[in-house]
Amino acid sequence: MYRYRRPHIILMALILIVWMHRDLVQPQADEYVVRFSDSTTSPVQRATFVPVHAAGTQVSAHSWLKRNGWQKVWPRFGLGKAQPLFFDGPPTDRYLRIDSEAAYFIWSRKLDINPHEQPFLEITWGMDRFPERAALDVYGQHDRPLVIVISFGPKVPSSGLLPDVPRGLAFFWGETETVGANYTCKQTRRHAAKKMMCKYPHIKYIALRSGGTDTSPTDRVHLVEAFQRHFPAYWDTHRKVPPIVALSFEAQSRHTESVSHARLYTITFTDTPSTKTK
Prior knowledge:
The protein is mostly beta strands. About 15% of the residues lie in helices and about 35% in strands. The protein has helices at about 1-20, 60-65, 225-230, 230-240; strands at about 30-35, 60, 70-75, 85-90, 95-100, 105-115, 120-130, 145-155, 165-175, 185, 195, 205-210, 220, 245-250, 260-270. Strands 1, 2, 4, 5, 7, 13 and 15 form a seven-stranded antiparallel β-sheet that branches. Strands 3-6-14-8-9-12 form a six-stranded mixed β-sheet. A two-stranded antiparallel ribbon has the order 10-11. It is globular, with a radius of gyration of 22 Å.
């Protein structure tokens, strides 16, 4: 009689163990990770891009970027000053080194992400040197050492001969700007009648971090809330955020004719903010 009950007892014990440890078997947060280093890992990744490098050496990143779907979208047609990009850092803490020497460039990669399913953006980055005297609200000095641009939905018609681009949230790390402030079409400090960053009024340049160097923090943004705040007319009409269609990074130091040094480790889109720090 007892040999028929033992399987049931064992089954009940297993169910009890699983229930008691249910937090350990919950599915991991769905996320999309773009890695420029091998210092951060995630148990669930729909896309992981890791550079191949020799231990502790500086390696050109151009072929790797192109191989993984990145394109240099500015300067166009081979114009402008060539600006090399490198992977750098020790073997356990690699990063994409983004230097700008009196130059301006943008690299972009296509994406297809639903921001309502993965509303959190996390950027792990670092700053080593700001362009001299740079500030986005000072005419002729509006350089930025590193900007991460998230593009949403279809392209918006642009004025003049400028190429059409989608709406964008452009998060940058500046030296003197106010965190959380929008610097698109902002009046300048020295010329009240002039407005800066107005060639593309539908790309919102938002200060995500200000000042400080020699650190590598992870900054987080709720993209749905940010889109609602900066594109209220679109939200009132559609009541949803359009899909994320591209990811870009840019650097500029040509206005101040100076040099900037920045580091980019990881960009993550996730449904749950992580607790990771660097």
